[in-house]
Amino acid sequence: MEVSKKNAGDFQKCHDDLIPGLPSELALECLVRVPYQFQSAMKSVCRSWRSLLSDSSFIRERHRCGKTELLLCLVQPLTPPISASKSVGETFMVDVKKSEDESQPRVFCTPRFGLSVYNSALSTWHRIAFPEKQQIPLFCECVVLQDAGKILLIGGWDPETLQPTRDVYVLEFAGRKWKRGAPMKESRSFFACASVGSTKVYVAGGHDDQKNALRSAEVYDVEKDEWSTVPPMTEGRDECQGFAIGTDLRFCVLSGYGTESQGRFRADGEIYDPATNSWSKIENIWRFPDTSPRGRTVGDFRSSSKLWCFTDTDLQSELRWETKDDSRNWKLELETIQLPMTGSSVFAGSLGGESVVMIGGKRESEGDGGVMMKMTTEKKMGQWSHVHIPSDFSTLPFSHASIYV
């Protein structure tokens, strides 16, 4: 496939020859075909290559040529050490306390979270380094803005105080550099979050530092690096799930619970329409009052208004249902999918055109690090395949996003 001469020319204006002796467009065609795993080393070759590979337009050019690789990014607890000690490096922070009437010390562990990456093309796993002397917020939301080539980690708990935070961390994937984004207007954790369109991220609900369920919502503009408030939802919703739905850039908040009914999940949801700057409620869409939609529900990429809920033996209901919001303008359909095996815990996510489910508390053989299943969603709908997880990456994630690089 021919590489864009305009892009090659633009790069040529800013850099020396990418490959001496080759026309700029041919040199660029060679470089976009190098697998992602080697790009970090390529930046050490020369300034021109470093500048080129650190530009988000390089990812877009790889995508245009059909050479991108799909990465699944997971915010997950780092695996605990085999034995607890006072200092255990990047895995856990450990405090050892001993009371007067205890003969043995009690060990209290605060987990550290990491950003793990699964490369679906190469079936490899690695972890992205966070800035030195900083820690990823516990239970933060991970979201991707593909066109900008950025991953955002939003909110969650401060690792030191264990209080909800407003913090936003931005990873520019091409340059592999972290920076601080503008903080949210309100501290929150366990909230709904989704990228909507190419430049916006919406957040809504969750809870504050007093465990009060929040109605508030806001939107982040990645180009301006600023947050704006949007009208609040009609209900406070803690532990809710967020989705982008439709082609007109709507944001859906599914279920959640109120302050006085913790753990009892609502059957309804709300849809925000930026065209009218208002919310509408959609009734009877979540029919599992004892189960959180988080880690159970993903969007169907073939349909702009369909969700899948992955069920096990504890969740039995009708297979499919649909409802409309109270304005009768929007329809949302939810379909239940039976998991191929059971476990003590489940996390479901999406990877391009496939659904991915990690199942905890289940081992296929001694020493197996964990179980991850992929379900195809196109021609072989419903067929599952197994993906091996190394033991260092086997803990269930809290949030996820996928990005083409």
TrEMBL record:
One of its GO terms (cellular component) is cytosol. It comes from the Eukaryota. GO terms for biological process: negative regulation of cytokinin-activated signaling pathway; regulation of phenylpropanoid metabolic process. InterPro entries: F-box-like_dom_sf, F-box_dom, Kelch-typ_b-propeller, Kelch_1, KMD1-4. Pfam families: F-box (PF00646), Kelch_KLHDC2_KLHL20_DRC7 (PF24681). Residues 22-62 form the F-box domain. This is F-box domain-containing protein. It comes from Arabidopsis lyrata subsp. lyrata (Lyre-leaved rock-cress).
